Amino acid sequence: MTRYLSIRLAAMFAGCAAVVFLLAGLALYQVLEEGMARQVRGEAKLRGSWVESEVARVQSESQWRLWLAPKLGAADLERNGTRLWIVSGNAAFRYGTPTPEIEALARAGGFGTLAEAGHPCLLVTWAKTVPGDGDRPEVTIVLAKDPLRFWETLAAFRLALIGFGAAGVLAVAALGLGIARVGLRPLKRLSGQAQALDPNHKHQRLALAPMPAELTDLTASFNGALQRLEAAYQQLEAFNADVAHELRTPLANLIGQTQVVLTRRRDAAELAEVLHSNLEELERLKAIVNDMLFLARVDQGAAASHPSEVSIAAEVARVVDFLDALIEERGVRVTVHGDARGCAETALLQRALGNLLGNAIEHSAAGDEITVAISRAGEHVTVAVSNPGRAIERQHLAHLFDRFYRVDTARRNSGGNHGLGLAIVKAIAAMHRGSVFVRSEQGLNTFGFTLRAPA
């Protein structure tokens, strides 16, 4: 297929026209052919009926020889493209020279066809038996009509159909090409708008107003794609800035401490203290890099490789035991409500639960109660971690699971939280074909995720 849409449309128009002209031409040709065949048979029968009436008047051999034969000869039927034979068992009552083919047509009666040597078409025959009368025995009239002039008319009509049909197809193709080019002008304008888009002006969109209805959806979809690309680009810019900021702090600490140590000679204890501090910063860098690599694998379609059926409440209890020192330090308590069995990879599930509980502990005050609610609804298990806290504004809720997103700088914890915990929860949920959710209502902030329930 050609790469030009206008030529493809013109070719389709031409193909449709060819089919229509072909079918119409065949129908017309068939009608004309049948009409001419009826006319030829009618002429043959008409002349045969005249011969029949003349033969019926003959009752003797003398009448046949002296009156009928000369009259039939004087009629000069062949001048009108007609051949005449009269077949009889008595040679005295014959006319013409009947061949075996003529005798076979006589026995068959009615209409038939006869091939004549050197003639381009078949003769149309008509046979009728005339009962005997007086001394005249029973005879059979065989009359053949030459349809050559009708056949020539059909041939001319056939050539005219082919010629006019071909010309019509070419005309339709040419007109279709022009119509297609005119009809595709809005698409050309749309292409021009798309080529005029500037990467430095990410807010640009294609104009919807002058577009036909058929292109409105395409334009709107393209604009939607541009909007998503702009949002992704902005998110990538923000992500790069956040990554640079997160990496800059521990690197600055490492460089600063190392520079201070190198200003003068230090004893072993001071060097060990600096190395321990540097190790903490290096561990933080390692955690950031590992988390980013983990998120990158999820973005590439990684899924839970070894899911198994587990008790969610039991896994929550293990995570709470692991975080017991932190819970005791912050003076909060954790309660678990409900239980359900879900299909999950244990290590990933514990990591997601640890991130949610760590987030809740970080934003809870001493004496607060953190609640973990586990429930099953249909094919999914829901895990919701709630803690008392300041209400989160609605515009932030949709972005809390984005990477490095924080509601405000007051929540920034340079000690260990680097803004990827909730993003990892979202990634783990996606690896288990689940989803995440967040609510802030009635003094409670709730973060959670869903998992597939076992069948």
TrEMBL record:
<dbReference type="InterPro" id="IPR005467">
    <property type="entry name" value="His_kinase_dom"/>
</dbReference>
<dbReference type="InterPro" id="IPR003594">
    <property type="entry name" value="HATPase_dom"/>
</dbReference>
<dbReference type="Pfam" id="PF00512">
    <property type="entry name" value="HisKA"/>
</dbReference>
<protein>
    <recommendedName>
        <fullName>Sensor protein</fullName>
        <ecNumber>2.7.13.3</ecNumber>
    </recommendedName>
</protein>
<feature type="coiled-coil region">
    <location>
        <begin position="226"/>
        <end position="285"/>
    </location>
</feature>
<keyword id="KW-0547">Nucleotide-binding</keyword>
<dbReference type="InterPro" id="IPR003661">
    <property type="entry name" value="HisK_dim/P_dom"/>
</dbReference>
<keyword id="KW-0175">Coiled coil</keyword>
<dbReference type="InterPro" id="IPR003660">
    <property type="entry name" value="HAMP_dom"/>
</dbReference>
<dbReference type="InterPro" id="IPR036890">
    <property type="entry name" value="HATPase_C_sf"/>
</dbReference>
<keyword id="KW-0902">Two-component regulatory system</keyword>
<feature type="transmembrane region" description="Helical">
    <location>
        <begin position="155"/>
        <end position="180"/>
    </location>
</feature>
<keyword id="KW-0597">Phosphoprotein</keyword>
<keyword id="KW-0067">ATP-binding</keyword>
<feature type="domain" description="HAMP">
    <location>
        <begin position="181"/>
        <end position="234"/>
    </location>
</feature>
<comment type="function">
    <text>Member of a two-component regulatory system.</text>
</comment>
<dbReference type="GO" id="GO:0005886">
    <property type="term" value="C:plasma membrane"/>
</dbReference>
<keyword id="KW-0997">Cell inner membrane</keyword>
<dbReference type="InterPro" id="IPR004358">
    <property type="entry name" value="Sig_transdc_His_kin-like_C"/>
</dbReference>
<keyword id="KW-1003">Cell membrane</keyword>
<dbReference type="InterPro" id="IPR050428">
    <property type="entry name" value="TCS_sensor_his_kinase"/>
</dbReference>
<keyword id="KW-0472">Membrane</keyword>
<feature type="domain" description="Histidine kinase">
    <location>
        <begin position="242"/>
        <end position="455"/>
    </location>
</feature>
<keyword id="KW-0418">Kinase</keyword>
<dbReference type="InterPro" id="IPR006290">
    <property type="entry name" value="CztS_silS_copS"/>
</dbReference>
<keyword id="KW-1133">Transmembrane helix</keyword>
<dbReference type="Pfam" id="PF02518">
    <property type="entry name" value="HATPase_c"/>
</dbReference>
<dbReference type="InterPro" id="IPR036097">
    <property type="entry name" value="HisK_dim/P_sf"/>
</dbReference>
<keyword id="KW-0808">Transferase</keyword>
<dbReference type="GO" id="GO:0000155">
    <property type="term" value="F:phosphorelay sensor kinase activity"/>
</dbReference>
<dbReference type="GO" id="GO:0005524">
    <property type="term" value="F:ATP binding"/>
</dbReference>
<keyword id="KW-0812">Transmembrane</keyword>
<feature type="transmembrane region" description="Helical">
    <location>
        <begin position="12"/>
        <end position="32"/>
    </location>
</feature>
<dbReference type="Pfam" id="PF00672">
    <property type="entry name" value="HAMP"/>
</dbReference>
